Amino acid sequence: MTAHIDTTARVETQEPRSGHQSGREDTRSGMKYWEDLAQAPVRRFGPLTFTGALLDHLLDLMGEKHPIHDDAEFASSVQRPGRIVPGGFIHSITSGWTVRHGAPAAIIGMRSMQWTFVRPLPLDTEFYFTTESVGASPVDKRVGLVDTVRKVMDADGKAYAIGRMSVVVLRRPGRAATAPNVQAANDLDSAAQPSPDFASGKDD
Q1: What is the CA radius of gyration of the chain?
Q2: Which of 43, 51, 55, 170 shows a CA-CA span of 20 to 30 A to 84?
Q3: Tens digit of pLDDT per residue, the chain (204 long)?
Q4: What are the extents of the domains in the chain?
C-alpha cells in the first residue's frame, strides 16, 4: 500500500534559528534523519536576497565569469534584468539557508539532482523557496532515500527555478527497521517549463 502526504494542509514557515554558531556540536544539534524527512510537511523559507557583492565574491572564488553574470552592460544588451544569478549558486544558497534557518540533515550522499530554470533570478531581489518531500524509501536498516522538490519563487509564487533531488540519508539510531512507504504526486511539472520568451532570449 502507498501512503500519500497531504501537501496542501501541512505547510511550515521556517523562522531563523537564534544563536547559530559554526562548529561540529552546533551542526549536529537538531539534526534530521530519514524518518523526519520522509513525512515532513512542506517547508517554506525566505525572504532572502542574492546580492551583487555576494555574486562578485563567488565569481572570484569559482571563476564562473560568463558575461551574463559578470557584465551588467552585456546582460542589458540581451534583454536581461541586469546580471543574473548562476543556476548552481541558486542551489547552493537555498541549501545553505535550509540548514541555517531550518535544521541540518543526516545526508551522506546525493543520488541525483536536476534543476529547471524557468526565468532569470535578478540580483538584489527578494525571493522565497519551498522544500517538499515527494517520495521516500528505505535502503536498509542504516540509510534511506528521500526525494524532494525545491521551488524557488517570488512573493506571488511565480517560479524562478525548480529543483528535484534524491539524497541518501541516515536513519535514526535505535529505530525499528519498519518504514513508511511515502510517495506524493508531483504537480509542478507544468510550472517547471521555461517560458518561450526566456528560451528565445527575450525578456518576459
Answers
A1: 18
A2: 43
A3: 333 323 333 344 444 444 444 444 455 668 999 999 998 899 999 999 998 888 888 888 878 787 778 667 887 888 787 788 888 899 999 999 988 888 899 999 999 999 999 999 988 999 999 999 999 999 999 999 999 999 999 999 999 999 999 999 999 987 644 444 444 333 334 444 444 444 444 444
A4: 22-200
Query: How far is residue 57 from each of residues 52, 63, 76, 80, 93, measured CA to CA in Å?
Result: 9, 10, 21, 21, 13
Which residue shows C-alpha cell 524518518? 35
User: Which CATH number applies to 22-200?
Assistant: 3.10.129.10
User: Model pTM greater than 0.90?
Assistant: no
Nearest to 162 by CA among 114, 196, 203, 102: 114
67 SS3 class: helix
Q: How many CB atoms lie within 10 A of CB 146?
A: 24
